[in-house]
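Archive entry: two folds, one per protein. Generate the first.
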Amino acid sequence: MVGRSSRLSEERYEGRPLLRLLDCYVLALTGNLSPEMEAKVADTVRRNFGEGPDWKVTLREATKLPSNMDERIRAIWRSQPVGTDPAAFALAVSDDNFLTMIDTA
């Protein structure tokens, strides 16, 4: 996870709005998404993918991620050294797990 940019730049998301939601998904699972941003993301997921009890579940199901993806991401986060940058972690997880899904869509 070391060496990846922690910048959540607009350039990263240009033409790939789903990637922004997935980055936020990772940040939320690790407890690193602000309540304000989580409310915005939940609203976006609700508008684009429908209602559900939890926006993360709705997004995971809509994108056909494995049902254990939440726990897999949390386990990887827990194994990181203290002081790991949450944004860099989110980018790395998204790049490793979601980017090919988005770029081939």
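Generate the second and append.
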Amino acid sequence: MAVTNFQGALRTFLLADTGIAALIDARLHPPPAPQESAMPYLTFQRISEDESDGRSLGKKSDIVVERWQFGIYADGVDSAEEVKTALRDALNFLAYTTLSGYKVFYAWRESGVEGFEPENDGSEEGYNKITQDYFIKRKIETE
């Protein structure tokens, strides 16, 4: 399948990473993930974008800084931490690279929240969830 936008380029890049693929296989979804998804899995979505970073002298910018949010869902703390580390390692390689024609300057982690989400059935069962926000600075159009 051809990549037609940056979300597709980012998904392709992440699923090609051996560390991530070994942990989540192809379970990388825009939210909400399918209810039948086996854990661990990742969700990801663009939260915001800012084109002002590359604007100068009244010209239209060809650079955007986007905030991407990743949700890590796992059966246990160790599994969630493994996915978190693999995601961080993969995104650290985004400096000065090209993803499906999109030039990426760099990515950095902004924030994160970790917690336990109980099931809705009143039991003590549940899952671990880690939310990570990353900024990605890139060219708007493919080269």
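Annotation attached to the second fold: Strands lie at 28-29, 41-50, 63-74, 97-99, 102-118, 126-139. The chain has a mean pLDDT of 89.
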